Amino acid sequence: MATRRAFLRTLACAVPASLWPPGAPGEAVQAPRAKYWVSGASAGPACRTCHPSAGALDRAHVHDPQGVLCQLCARNCAIKAGGSGRCGARANVNGELRSLVYGRPAAVHVDPIEKKPFYHFLPGRSAYSLGTVGCPLQCKFCQNWEISQARPGDYGSAFTSAEDVVRSAESRGAPVIAVTYNEPTVFAEYALDIAEAARLRGLRLAMVSCGYMNERPLADFCRAFDAIKIDLKGFSDAFYRAVSGAALAPVLRSIRQVRRSGRHLEIVNLVVPTLNDSDASLRGLADWVMGELGPDVPVHFTRFFPNYQLRNLAPTPVATLARARSLAMDRGIRYAYVGNVPGHPGNHTYCPTCGARVIAREDFFVLETKLLNGRCAACGSAVAGVWA
Fold this sequence. Notes:
Blueprint: H1 4-11, E1 37-39, H2 40-43, E2 68-70, E3 78-79, E4 90-93, E5 96-99, E6 107-112, E7 126-131, H3 145-148, H4 162-171, E8 176-179, H5 188-200, E9 204-209, H6 215-224, E10 227-231, H7 237-244, H8 249-261, E11 264-271, H9 279-292, E12 299-303, H10 318-330, E13 336-339, E14 349-350, E15 357-362, E16 365-369, E17 371-372, E18 375-376
Parallel strand pairs: 7-8, 8-9, 9-10, 10-11, 11-12, 12-13
Antiparallel strand pairs: 1-2, 2-3, 4-5, 6-7, 14-15, 15-16, 17-18
Helix pairs in contact: 4-5, 5-6, 6-8, 9-10
């Protein structure tokens, strides 16, 4: 018998713009018009508008005036009327791209900012964290696959406006709102509206992303958000294609763009045994970070635990993570961390000049801070980050 999720996916192509996803009884919320797309109708005979990578199109090609090209992520999905993009979160409704996840959070929690992880952005603060369903990637190790690989309608979440999100964050005493859990790219319109509402109330914004966003929408995120963490899942295109169903180049492009924007940036590399844990891969990543971003971008090497479609692998040996951190620091990276290993000395932040421990952590919590106005209390050297 088909599962509810599989059944709903078969219906996705026939879903009208209204009443999707289902909300509270009697609720009728229109799936809003998406941003970042072009229609076949507006393209006219200029086929390269919707097929930018095509060579000479086949003579049998028939222009689809109701087709749309989503320009949000690097997949650039061409979507026929009634269809949805690879992420499942955006659908072509009568020749117009609609967001099926706007206002529909599937997960909401208040977390320590360190859990994202951000170690150099407002340490010790709480982050009101939310995500919807959908993702442009299909990572075999995803820890949030229940929502990232889900589709609209799998969760019966009630409509929550951007203003309601901000009010809820304030009521929980969280000075930061983080878009996370699944990939915020797929709910870009919602995330940007939340950011606009949060700014008016003096809250800070953080995003946890896979970095698969195209340049124009990412520029909007860089203007709206204070801090962006990007998962650099491995340092080879072969790894990305085999394990995440994606490509490496768009992620590197996004990381460069965030760095150039001046927004606070941190990078996470989940170290997966036998797949991306070779010295060559780890050195290549560290060398790229040093060459493209400089020594002050924090890099987290986090421990893999068996999950989703990679339950056959063992957890990452702690010695492998310590080696990765050591390789990065030998390459000149000042702030390299060991993640998902409580109690490890690689969880702490050290002054890059005198070596004093300036932030002590246990799990996701700050135990002690020895920073004065962003400087080491022992020697007075600046420590890169956003501290207030």
